């Protein structure tokens, strides 16, 4: 049995013992057992189940057992010698801060499910890390950053956008822009939502999750709700779709712009590659629509520089320009994959090398030190070449070959854009842009 399974079994056993002690009215012992069990659950969510359904289940369990432990704690505080009665729900006098105790358990469960969508740690993607897309960045600053920093600018009839739709071909940086927004929007709560967070197999629970999501956004405002691939949740309504899917869309419509819903301080950002499949009513809720195109030549040049960054290389400015010109039709994601493959070329040289020679250079383990006995791949005819494989090279003696333009060109021969040889915009996409008037 794995260590994770053992910890989970230990936690479950402690909780079972705690509940047995409650039945025996040994409340102090039960409280200690609950505390130990909860500690195991928290350790599991932090180190073993960092994401996924298992983490959500453990979070729900933690909330449930914390509530029980709190009841016992308050009871023991009130009745120091009391073992005659079972713990009761603490009143407002017992604990003035326990407002959530009276909350509907079902609502509490849904809120716990959604808490995993809150981005606690900022992604650390700055505006400068996003190459090109100047128009999109300015529009997002106008909608997100300025209202938070200068709220007095948005008074009277001047109001910030409440819905922004990012659309464009795959791999152009829509989700990456959202990460930059999460980093740059200080003092705001960022919710990153996917269809799995909102779709449930239980009847009626999906629309409740949507409602609770927006209620949490209002409670934590200023807040940003980012819904990636929103077309999977809000496609056009039809007679053939399920009743559950229709109810989710209806709840979205009500929450985004329904009567009685105050969404001041709540911004909804959606991203999609296929905006024409969105329901027209949903699309109308996104007042600001920003087209994220395939990168132009200058943006591609910046992308190559950003992806190579501080890797030791011999590429010149003219090399970067040539790469940018030679990758027309490539998206940002395509360029990232191309550079990643090219960066592996020096590693492949090490792998396939049959000869190595001694050279001087910076110590691989400490760049501040110089070493005269480093080994680097070479041709069999090079002076000082020694026949050996990479397995025979000590780990602290390998000097990697410098990354060159030849490595880039080698990877470019095999690289193809995601969209193949087609025009940057398909006929359907061009029709949509023109007839929906979505160019911004």
UniProtKB/TrEMBL annotation:
CDD domains: RecA-like_VPS4. It holds the Pfam family MIT. One of its GO terms (cellular component) is endosome membrane. Keywords: ATP-binding, Coiled coil, Endosome, Membrane, Nucleotide-binding. GO terms for molecular function: ATP binding; ATP hydrolysis activity. It is a peripheral membrane protein. Residues 4-82 form the MIT domain. Belongs to the AAA ATPase family. This is Vacuolar protein sorting-associated protein 4B. The lineage of its organism: Eukaryota, Metazoa, Ecdysozoa, Arthropoda, Chelicerata.
């Amino acid at each position: 049995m794995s260590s994770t399974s053992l910890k989970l079994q230990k936690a479950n056993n402690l909780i079972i013992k705690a509940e047995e002690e409650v039945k025996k009215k040994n409340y102090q012992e039960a409280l200690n057992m609950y505390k130990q069990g909860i500690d195991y659950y928290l350790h599991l969510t932090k180190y073993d189940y960092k994401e996924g359904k298992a983490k959500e289940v453990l979070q729900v369990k933690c909330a449930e057992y914390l509530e029980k432990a709190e009841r016992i704690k308050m009871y023991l505080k009130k009745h120091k010698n009391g073992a005659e009665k079972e713990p009761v729900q603490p009143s407002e006098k017992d604990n003035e801060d326990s407002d959530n105790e009276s909350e509907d358990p079902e609502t509490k469960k849904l809120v716990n499910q959604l808490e995993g969508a809150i981005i606690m740690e900022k992604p650390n993607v700055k505006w400068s890390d996003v190459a090109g897309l100047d128009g999109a960045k300015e529009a997002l600053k106008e909608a997100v950053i300025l209202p938070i920093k200068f709220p007095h600018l948005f008074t009277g009839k001047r109001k910030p956008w409440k819905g922004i739709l990012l659309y464009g071909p795959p791999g152009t940086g829509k989700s990456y822009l959202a990460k930059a927004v999460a980093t740059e929007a200080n003092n705001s709560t960022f919710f990153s939502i996917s269809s799995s967070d909102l779709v449930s197999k239980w009847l009626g629970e999906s629309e409740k999750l949507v409602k609770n999501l927006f209620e949490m956004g209002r409670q934590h405002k200023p807040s940003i709700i980012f819904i990636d691939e929103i077309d999977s949740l809000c496609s056009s309504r039809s007679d053939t779709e399920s009743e559950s899917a229709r109810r989710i869309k209806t709840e979205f419509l009500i929450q985004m712009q329904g009567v009685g819903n105050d969404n001041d301080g709540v911004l909804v950002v959606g991203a999609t590659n296929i905006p024409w499949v969105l329901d027209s009513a949903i699309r109308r809720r996104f007042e600001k629509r920003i087209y994220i195109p395939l990168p132009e030549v200058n943006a591609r040049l910046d992308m190559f520089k950003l992806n190579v960054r501080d890797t030791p290389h011999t590429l010149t400015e003219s090399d970067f320009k040539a790469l940018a010109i030679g990758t027309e039709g490539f998206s940002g994601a395509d360029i990232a994959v191309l550079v990643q493959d090219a960066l592996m070329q020096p590693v492949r040289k090490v792998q396939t090398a049959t000869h190595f020679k001694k050279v001087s250079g910076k110590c691989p383990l400490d760049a501040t030190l110089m070493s005269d006995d480093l080994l680097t791949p070479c041709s069999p005819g090079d002076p000082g070449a020694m026949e050996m494989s990479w397995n025979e090279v000590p780990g602290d003696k390998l000097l990697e070959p410098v990354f060159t333009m030849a490595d880039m060109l080698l990877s470019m021969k095999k690289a193809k854009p995601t969209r193949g040889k087609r025009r940057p915009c398909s006929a359907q996409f061009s029709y949509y842009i023109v007839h929906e008037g979505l160019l911004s």
